[in-house]
Design goal:
Blueprint lengths: L6 H4 L11 H22 L14 H6 L1 H30 L1 H35 L6 H10 L6 H16 L14 H21 L15 H17 L7 H24 L13 H26 L5 H28 L6 H23 L10
Helix pairs in contact: 2-4, 2-11, 2-12, 2-13, 4-5, 4-7, 4-9, 4-10, 4-11, 5-6, 5-7, 5-12, 8-9, 8-11, 10-11, 12-13
């Protein structure tokens, strides 16, 4: 059995025997809402890939270009950072076998359900609604070749990272002494994200497709932030970010956002060179992504730690993972229901966003009341 952990010793769990911190739950809710917003925007003209899209655009959707771009450069990495931060204390408390069993149940079951059932059903539903086909057979044949995981690519990659860490970490190295992660370490992570992202994107461009929708172009950011989260979880840094780190991270985050805006303006007619390959534009994007992703982990974690929690957020935090899992079928169903209404794309976007957020979180909360569902959602 791996050695145990308490909240006082590590500062990474709210109380002995739990995996929750209130401000981390709130940040998960915000990140999940951000992913839902992104997919709503893509549905009505935003850049990106999604199961169902309509011609869109307009001022409202155009205004989302900057937050969508920023989210691509640090949003998913933040999910991995938070997951990594809770991995060492969970592994120390549960032991290797129980930890792996829990991860494979909570992550593996939804992933398998999406690959086998949900994704082909969504393709069939969209094909039928758009007149592209009525039989389910083509959708299932397509899925047999693609093995698409949809937005649950994140779940599959996290399962891979978590399993790898649990299998290779020495029994006496799961947790370390409390310490602050220094500026040199953070700079090193930022450089690593920038360099490896550029190298990976020579072959796997931004938004390119691979088997299982693996998002290999995003793996450098995801892996680096997961490892940074592991350091935070081992040492208690998640609740001990210094004021100096917060101030520096805020400046870096602001400068990075300005840089991304400049990229969007410069590439307003053609963003393709910024997506990868041996181009200077790809160098610029990766150079922005490294500092942005690391500084976002510092600034946003600390920001949510210092804000007051509301009663509703305590429930939403527990429902965030389920809302993330359920977003694809919920958003596609609502968008298809809006299809024949004739409303302007911007209005449809607002309806989809509001209805999608309420439906995803509410449905996740309802499903968690079913016997055994909390172990999965």
């Amino acid at each position: 059995m791996l050695r145990s952990v308490t909240a006082d010793a590590r500062g990474t769990v709210a109380e002995a025997g739990t995996d929750r911190l209130g401000h981390v739950d709130d940040l998960k809710v915000a990140l999940t809402a951000g992913v839902i917003l992104a997919h709503c925007a893509i549905t009505y003209g935003g850049d990106g890939s999604w199961f169902y899209r309509e011609p869109g655009g307009g001022v409202l959707v155009a205004l989302l270009d900057l937050p969508l771009a920023l989210g691509a450069l640090f949003g998913m990495g933040l999910f991995f950072f938070l997951a990594g931060a809770f991995t060492p204390p969970a592994l120390a408390r549960k032991g290797r076998a129980a930890f792996l069993a829990g991860r494979w149940l909570r992550l593996g079951v939804p992933l398998a359900a999406f690959v086998v059932l949900v994704i082909p059903a969504l393709h069939w539903l969209v094909d039928g609604a758009t007149g592209a086909g009525g039989s389910p057979a083509p959708a299932w044949r397509r899925q047999a070749g693609d093995l698409d995981t949809g937005p649950l690519w994140f779940v599959g990659v996290l399962l891979l990272f978590s399993t790898g860490y649990a299998l290779v970490v020495p029994r006496d190295r799961v947790l370390g002494p409390p310490r602050t992660v220094g500026a040199a370490t953070l700079v090193g992570f930022a450089v690593a994200v920038a360099v490896t992202s550029y190298l990976v994107r020579i072959r796997f461009r931004i938004d390119s497709y691979q088997l299982f929708a693996a998002h290999l172009w995003q793996w450098p950011q995801c892996l680096a932030l997961f490892v940074l989260g592991l350091l935070a979880g081992r040492s208690g840094w998640l609740t001990a970010i210094s004021p100096g780190q917060r101030r520096a991270g805020t400046w870096v985050l602001g400068a990075g956002a300005a840089g991304v805006l400049a990229v969007l303006v410069a590439g307003r007619h053609d963003l393709d060179p910024f997506g990868g390959g041996l181009t200077w534009q790809s160098v610029v994007v990766c150079a922005l992504e490294g500092p942005l992703s690391v500084s976002a982990a510092v600034v946003l974690t600390d920001l949510f730690r210092r804000r007051r929690r509301g009663t509703l957020s305590r429930h939403l935090g527990a429902w965030a993972y389920g809302a993330y899992v359920l977003q694809a079928p919920v958003l596609v169903a609502i968008a298809l229901a809006l299809r024949p209404t004739g409303l302007p794309p911007s209005v449809k976007f607002l309806v989809l966003l509001g209805g999608g957020l309420v439906a995803c979180f509410t449905l996740a909360g309802a499903l968690r009341r079913l016997p055994g569902a909390r172990r999965v959602l």
